[in-house]
């Protein structure tokens, strides 16, 4: 694989990340490495090697105390001295580069201090106790959070368990993942020295895990460059084609984006709105996606306009001027200021059409929104600081409450931490984590009590049930979506209101079919775990579950009454109408007048009464006949066509209806009673599930009549 394909960050036109760094001198890591080898500076002077870090840090935090950075660098340099990277550079150049990435994004001092030290515990003799003693508990926690678990101890499970450990640490401090993302970005930038197979393995993990995490934490600056670096390694041919498209477009004399930019500047100037209007080129993966969607690309497809203003109200002022003075494409409008994305992102999205038919996309946001859009949680400084400290440690005014969500525990992270505890082994955790993170869009659904649930796009009512109730959702029997009864398999949309209908039976069980409609790990793991703990019992050899008609026998040790029956092979057997037993129900029987033997379910209330009256039980077991008759009661809410839908569901299961009665509605509830002939008793659970899945039906059970003396 060529060096250009494996490391697209090498100098050249339109390289990934170069657009953001244009006009800034490139950092010479070899020079930094040489400076590091010269040894630490005097105790009161900042080492030359971290001058770029200090400069970037002071740009965001003018009053920051740089002494922790000096001391962290001295410890890191002395600890890593003599270690070299595969590229031949001194190892200290790696933590320096990682720290510079974070400093440029506006990370606060504690994060940068931990970043300088992030490999010391893993790769040197430095211990976590030493880090705590020198830099405090916060830095120790961050360093520990990104320290890998040893392969010697964990074997093949080391990588998934390291990520599990890191995610748990992120649950208490999101800065852990910030350091990991910057660490992976620098490693990806320098991946060209690795063997092709190792490049591909690292790129796949980056694609499946790190990039989605960067998206969820809102760190777009890291996410987009990681995407381009992965694209170059995993799809070198498509990468080269996309690069060629970008280079060819850059050489064109006409630039529709520049023309619209100048027009927008004039419109806003006349309106008296102070704003910056910039061209924001698309990165490689974005261009590739657009080309696959639109085919041949035109000049306006290679970038978007970015309008930056000072106040929230100015965003809407800009929007009004654009839609008044230019030709808006209304279908492209989205308001992520009023309704921010789950990853803190806020912006207005719109588009305007040129006379030649080209469409120019426009993003409108405040400077603070832009900072958060680029750096996500990193831009928020220390999210755990007290308000006064946070105010002193930020550059410019603090964002209004509506401009930020709680960064310490985003909803997606809480859900991830919940289900990872239930993941039984590293392989399940690793595959489920990738599956969870692959769901790259989140929806919000509302509960009737005013609360909300955050779910991935494509989630169903089953997912909503487990998100709200945990394993108690096993008892869910139905749902109302936007006020209308709906199947549990119903896929939810952003903004839906969901009311979950819960049964009262504590022994309720989830349906195996729910797995087909469960998209969230918490739902899938809970259902799978229940099913594994409650396997369908195998029928004992003497009592096949597939049989229906009971036969009567009794060992010699039983009471005499049960032996009268044994000696009468022609005894008449009757299924009790009070509990209508069917296989594989546990059954017992009693002898009644005329030599008839009546069979009951063991839990039938009539059995207790007859035992109390001194009646002797008769041993029975199921015989070989497979057909059975059963009476079911369906409880439902009243709605048109419900009876037709229920009978259709029964017929689709291949079951004959012997009789049916429908009681008059009471408080909008209706009771249906069906006597049904099943060709196979083992099919009864599936039949009951099919009836429960009919919209409006909230419970289906076996008929329970008043138990009398047989």
Q: Keywords for this structure?
A:
single chain; 710 residues; alpha+beta; Hypothetical protein af1432; Beta Polymerase, domain 2; four-stranded mixed beta sheet; disordered N terminus; disordered C terminus; Kinase; TGS; kinase; transferase
Structure description:
A hairpin with a 6-residue loop joins β19 (656-662) and β20 (669-678). By secondary structure, the protein is α+β, with helices and mostly antiparallel strands. It has five domains: 3-247, Hypothetical protein af1432 (Orthogonal Bundle), CATH 1.10.3210; 255-397, Beta Polymerase, domain 2 (2-Layer Sandwich), CATH 3.30.460.10; 411-533, Roll (Ubiquitin-like (UB roll)); 550-622, no CATH class; 628-702, Alpha-Beta Plaits (2-Layer Sandwich), CATH 3.30.70. The strands form six sheets. Strands 1, 2, 3, 4, 5 and 6 form a six-stranded mixed β-sheet that branches. Strands 13-15-14-16 form a four-stranded mixed β-sheet. The radius of gyration is 34 Å and the shape is globular. α10 (137-146) crosses α13 (175-189). The protein has 29 helices and 21 strands. The longest helix is centred in the N-terminal third of the chain and has 21 residues, at 196-216.
